[in-house]
Amino acid sequence: MPLNTPVNILLVDDQPENLLALEAVLGKLGENLVQASSGEEALRCLLNQEFAVILLDVQMPGMDGFETANLIRSRARSQHTPIIFLTAFDSSDQGIFRGYSLGAVDYLIKPINSDILVSKVSVFADLFRKNAAVQLQSAQLTAMNAELRRSEEQFRSLSASSPSGIFVIDPMGRCTYTNPRYHTVCGTSNQNWCQCIHPEDRDRALFQWNAYLQEGGEFSEEFRLQSQDDRDPWVQVRSCPMFSQTGEAQGHVGTIEDITERKEAEVTRAQVMREQLARQEAEVANRMKDEFLAVLSHELRTPLNSMLGWVRLLRSKQYDKKMFDRALETIERNAETQAQLVEDILDVSKIIRGKLRLNYRAIQLSAVIQAATDAVRPQIEAKSLLLETDFDPNLPSIWGDSTRLQQIVWNLLTNAVKFTPSEGRITIRLTLDQAQMAQITVTDTGVGIDAEFLPQVFDRFRQADSTTTRSHNGLGLGLAIVRHLVEIHGGTIAASSPGIGLGATFIVRLPLLNSSEIQDKLRGESPISADVAQRVIW
Q1: Rounded Cα distance, 1 and 24, in Å
Q2: CB neighbours of 90 closer than 8 A, spacing ≥ 6?
Q3: Of the candidates 454, 437, 425, 345, which has an alpha carbon nearest to the alpha carbon of residue 399?
Q4: How far apart are CA 207 and CA 396, in angstroms?
């Protein structure tokens, strides 16, 4: 019993007010106070609980305190429980003598000094706890000695019948004990398992074993053993240091287990999982292609229907110039939309077949971005969007294809225009980042990107809304093309969004060229540096 555990104290008095008074005085001790209003009730409490001390009133109707104490002492379980008699009437020598003769530890006359009572009770409570602790330690010591004897008797039989191989190594590294299973697993009577390791696994296993011997901790490694029957079983060896009670190193104890069946099962399971994953990926790819074809059909048919509709109207009757110009404008706009869709499809086809070619030269990004911005400006003005630009004019050149770089910026800007409501804001910046790379940042105040869809935003044929009734047009190819164009320029692209309705940010980072690399490339007098060569991916 811990020394801070509350103990039971039995309060016996036929007067409720006396019990309340005792509880008020002894409550500060923090012990478990149990009340009994008669001798019979006190005996019932003693049937199921042990008490550190009993405060017993002498004068009680029916069974008085002396009779109750006599019965308490007659029971083996409570015959040594301390009893303190409390009385306000029988203070005679005869009464006191009788109380002590019944085994009482004290005989107090009411009114009782509360400090004295608390002091006496606390002594017996502490004594009860310490006695319980001693008994517990004694029982534990007895059990430990018995367990030690049983362990010594059972060690050899357990070791001999163990399903795992067991070995013991002394501090000098010598193997001093192995059980029969050890020899069965290793297939030899050689006590040193290190000599049985398969040649292909030996260096790795011995390196890990030596690291364990130097650093301590625990050793666990899986490797193959070289057997005479060419079975080459897989085993798992575990080991940990042994120490004496004083902390002195006594060597190492370990086990060796044959895990060949588990390894074969893991190979089979891995193959099944790969096949399942391949099927799932194929199903996802087929589903994405089906969705893409449905969207493609819709996107190609929509501008075509508009153009055919206006052509039929123009053939049916004569319109005034205003209506005729409106028809031509609509036909032209839808033709351009359809042409862009075809261009995207062709670009993706080239990317997939590895046929996309770039015309590299030294380029100033600010001019490329300005050209893309001018191309998108009519769409921006049509939706009354605010376009903010911030270009660093002193950035060095990059090595790339100006047309494809303009396509990157154009796609990002048109994407921002598409998903930004009227009177929103689009910001494009060109800066130098901390890694000394050119950084193009396009930020909008549009519909944002859901966190679950964000990892797939650059995948081909993927849109957050893939249905043909979605609110925004497009095939879901623009960002995929942008990512590929950025990567073949040796750069990276990332997307972020605080959430739906909170806009989105796209950041493109492209490597810069120093002046010597540009001159070497333009003159053709020396080969491109390794860094540039890695970026020129044909």
Answers
A1: 26
A2: 58, 59
A3: 437
A4: 50
Cα–Cα distance for residue pair 387/369, rounded to 1 Å? 13
Which sign does the torsion angle of CA 312, 315, 320, 321 carry?
positive
pLDDT digits (tens, 9 = 90+) for 191-232: 677 778 888 888 888 888 888 888 878 888 888 888 777 778
Closest CA relative to residue 52, chosen from 73, 30, 31: 31
> What domains can you pick out in the chain, each with its CATH number?
8-137 (3.40.50.2300), 162-258 (3.30.450.20), 264-349 (1.10.287.130), 357-535 (3.30.565.10)
Q: How far apart are CA 344 and CA 338, in angstroms?
A: 10
Distance between CA atoms of residues 445 and 447, nearest Å: 7
Token representation of residue 41: 């009730």
Nearest alpha-carbon partner for 383 in 418, 352, 427: 418
pTM score: 0.42
In this prediction, residue 390 has a pLDDT band, given cuts at 50, 70 and 90, of very high
Tens digit of each residue's pLDDT (9 = 90 or more) over 165-179: 888 888 887 888 888
